[in-house]
Amino acid sequence: MSIIELARPDIRALQPYSSARTEASGGSVLLNANESPWPAGEHALNRYPDPQPAELVARLAALYGVAPAQLLVGRGSDEAIDLLVRAFCRADRDAILICPPTFGMYAVSAAVQGAAVVEAPLRADFSLDVDALLERVTPAVKLVFVCTPNNPTGNLVPLAAVERLAAALAGRALVVVDEAYIEFAGVASAMTLLDRFDNLVVLRTLSKAHALAAARIGSLIAHADIVALLRRILPAYPLPSPCVDAALAALTPAALVATRARVAALAEARDRLAAILRRAPGVREVYPSVANFVLARCSAATTVYRRLLGAGVVVRDVSRHPALGDCLRVSAGSDTDHSALEAALIPHEVTS
Fold first, then answer.
1. Between the CA of residue 231 and those of 15, 80, 352, what are the distances in Å?
2. What pLDDT is stored for residue 350 in this prediction?
3. Are 40 and 46 in contact (CB under 8 A)?
4. Where among 208, 223, 251 does a domain terminate?
5. Widest CA span of the chain, in angstroms?
6. Which of 341, 323, 343 is nearest to 332 (CA)?
7. What is the tens place of the pLDDT at every residue in 122-151?
8. How distant, in Å, are the alpha carbons of 203, 208, 218, 249, 263 from that of 180?
9. Residue 24's pLDDT band (boundaries 50, 70, 90)?
10. Residue 227: which CATH number?
11. 235, 251, 267: which is the final residue of a domain?
12. What's the whole-model pTM score?
């Protein structure tokens, strides 16, 4: 069967909106989009942008080692998650599967779509139990989300586990591998499996390692048929031109060299952060992480969170999740950031 048969029938039959920029391909006198013919200010932003800028798609495809037809660019990974859920899950009939504790937007997108959420919780050490996950897959499950390195725990899901899932769920469900933090881990991407599994989808972003969180540029990489299907429901003009320009600037050879140096520096900063947290009173455990953040279990996370906030240091309180009681997630920062964190966490002795 074609992998597209897993998608909603109404989406497969949908006649997509044809944007003015799509129609304008090859034209130079643009009178079809009700735009202003004159730019305002120094930046020429009077024309609508290309929905999928060819140069950006080509650069990202080259970066990730895939064909341009396998790549969709959107507003961060969040838009890709939303598109997948809307395209493959019918309200009140279909479901997604997640492995909590994990990134919260998977469940939020499902709730917005009216899709059910099936849970296959991680083990106590936050590792993925593939057998337990497969036991929970029902015919209603169309998307299985796997985050690696996992947010907020920071640990990897082995590539062999992803391979097992993709093989076991062939023709049954898509395996969506969220690799937002993989550059910090220094391991092979699940994209190496794309040629073997048409039910595999990989999410990447420029927000983390490439330091473009405000530009909101994410990539969905999958079988070309999946990409073509999702383009049917992509908003007409999802990528603002200044964001595209910022992404192109971040993908030049010189910028990529700087990115590699920044990734290495953040990995070292993460390890220094972990050492600070291990010395802090009230921190019971600091979990191993290969991302650009660290998960710490405290004696009283809410108290620690408020103390830090009072000192102007903002961390992420993730203790609302049952498996993360009294846990805080702390991002790796600059030396100045870490000094402020340390001063707020570790009281200095006062000598007379």
1. 11, 11, 69
2. 43
3. yes
4. 251
5. 80
6. 341
7. 999 999 999 999 999 999 999 999 999 999
8. 7, 7, 9, 20, 13
9. low
10. 3.40.640.10
11. 251
12. 0.94
